[in-house]
Amino acid sequence: MKERVMKWLGTMIALGMIALLIGSIIEGNRIEQEKAAEEKQQPVTEEKQSVRKYSPNEEAEAEKYAEEVTAPTEETQTEIQKVIPEFLKLYVPFNIENPDEFLKKSLPYVTGNLYKAFEQEKRRGTLTIVKTKVLSVELEPQKEGLEEQWWNADIEVEHTDQDGQTSTSTLAYIIKVNMIDGKWKIDDLAVRSRAWNS
Questions:
Q1: Which among 36, 62, 78, 177 has most CB atoms closer than 10 A?
Q2: Do residues 166 and 134 lie in contact, with contact meaning Cβ atoms separated by under 8 Å?
Q3: Sheet containing 166-180: which strands, arranged edge to edge?
Q4: Average of pLDDT values for 180-185?
């Protein structure tokens, strides 16, 4: 008896599924036909887009601007590649006994705004690190220009803890340099996260 009920119930479920499938196909066709009928009833209007026409003067100005933009010279890049490491060798080292030692020495390398920011921030060591010294600096240009450039700097440093034990790590910075009064100066810098490493 149970087998008959199970077979009967299975057959009813299968028939119900087939009926739902057929019903959904018919309903889908009906909806498509309604949409097609609506599209036929609506008049087709062409949307006119305004076309910008350039006058000869605008084209000439664009060409003139294109001629004025030039790439930084090798001399410029070499100068920047000297300024940034010199600054970082002053800024990155840390000694808990004199945390602001870098401040006055960094003045020739930074803009006035960055120097003011340095004056306001107080550098502190960590619970364990009491001294940091720079081992090497690697630079990679990110955005080169005649008046402003952005560079990635990877600085290998040696940390000394309270017990005199040393360890090395790499600090990653993004650095903005600006041409000010004929000299390249650091205008901003920040620790670079992994998202900046591309």
A1: 177
A2: no
A3: 94-95, 129-143, 148-161, 166-180, 183-191
A4: 90
Show the DSSP H helices in 42-151 as ranges.
Answer: 56-68, 74-91, 102-106, 112-120
Predicted local distance difference test score (pLDDT) of residue 175: 93
| pTM > 0.85 | no
**Which pair of structure tokens corresponds to residue 147?**
């008046």
Sign of CA dihedral 67, 72, 76, 78: negative
In a 3-state reduction of DSSP, which class is residue 58? helix
Phi, then psi, of 174 in degrees rounded to 5: -110, 130
State pLDDT tens for residues 62-89: 555 544 546 678 887 888 889 999 999 9
How far apart, in whole angstroms, are the C-alpha atoms of residue 99 and residue 106? 13
